[in-house]
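QUALITY CONTROL LOG
STEP: pairwise intake check
CHECKER ROLE: data steward
CRITERIA: each record must contain a sequence immediately followed by its structure tokens, with no blank fields

ENTRY 1 OF 2
RESULT FIELD BELOW
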Amino acid sequence: MIPWYAPTSIEQWLRRLLSVRTVILGVCLVTLFITEWRFDWMEQVAGRYLVSTNRYRPKSGTVWEQGRQSDQARQALAEYAQQQQSVQREAQQAGSLGLVVASVDPKGTMLSAEHFLNLYLKLPPVLAQEIVSPYVLLALSSAGRWDRVFFQREDENLTISLLDTRNQVIHRLSIGPVLLGHIERGEVAIRTGLEQLSDFSDNIYPAELFFEELNALPEATRRRVVSHPEDLLRVSGQIQRIGISTGAMGDYVDLGFEVQDMEGPKVILMQGSRDEVRQLQRAMEGGVRKAGALGGEERP
């Protein structure tokens, strides 16, 4: 027996397809399609629902998202560790304190006590005294507690912490922006006069006499006395006097160029070859004695 709902002819098929229920269903489907295509109301309804339930859902609700974030975190840590190693390597291989200061990482830079001492001893004595007294370093070194040095930027200043083996601070130094800028640029200047610097107070000569005797020397000799005269040309103010240190650091002697500017006197520190500087010093002393003898003669 054929069921009542199974049409037996095309006419019955068409009659059922064009029935009121089928037509209403078709009109509803077409209306939904057109309104969705025109107004995107399904997306808006779904969006409003997701927004209303957003606080109840986890930020990373899928395993793949958590895995991606883990990979990004590992990559960032690897890049940071590589950057830190590069900064530490540059600082440990630096040949001057200025290079260390220029490469200080925002998170800080660590050096061994031996390396810091080597760089400290390369500085002119006057500048080294401005940073820290050698007697302080001698006492810390003799106590056997000083193990490393930590450099850290704080605004425009540089803090140098002397640490023991347990990273406890045993002494802290602070370098201001003015002195720090001179160290980074390789220019050493101290806001004072030559008389206040004990290394130069006994050997002070007029700038005119110094440069007159310097120009009388061969070019190679002049370069060994003042290796970078361009730096002196860049200094604002007039060079009035030059001091020569009494002692020597190995093959070099400290030179102090006293400059007078709007803020008062300051001394630019440089180093020259010991033998050539002493040769120039003897020539200047001879010129001073000769000028003194001529000045003492009576005029007719």
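ENTRY 2 OF 2
RESULT FIELD BELOW
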Amino acid sequence: MPRVTTQVRSAGRRVAATGECIEVAAALGDLDAVDRLLEGVASLTGAVQTPNELLVGVHPSLAALRRLGAGGSARRFLEALEPVAEKALPGSLQVRASLAEGYLLLKDEARASALIESTIDAALSGS
């Protein structure tokens, strides 16, 4: 698999490019590539400037999980994004809601429910 994302300097653009690669790998049914790409997005969480930049990689990733099912890499992917979702930055509530959706796909209803409740609480409190 070509390493397209290594040529892109901006972490936000790398996440977007990796998200597009995830969509292609999922369409091809390449579980190994999807796993590696999920780990690639997760590894960029500390480098992106805002949670909104992560959403461009999270949404294709969730679509891939829907198509292919979920595994260990999917759980690690979601867990790596949780610290970003907890920050009080623009877009963090959307990341939190997306993570809840991901945990539902993993059949982890307790974790999804906790994220949904914290998202609602944060939205209603204005934080």
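INTAKE CHECK: passed for both entries
DESCRIPTIVE NOTE, ENTRY 2: The CA atoms of residues 10 and 48 lie 8 Å apart.
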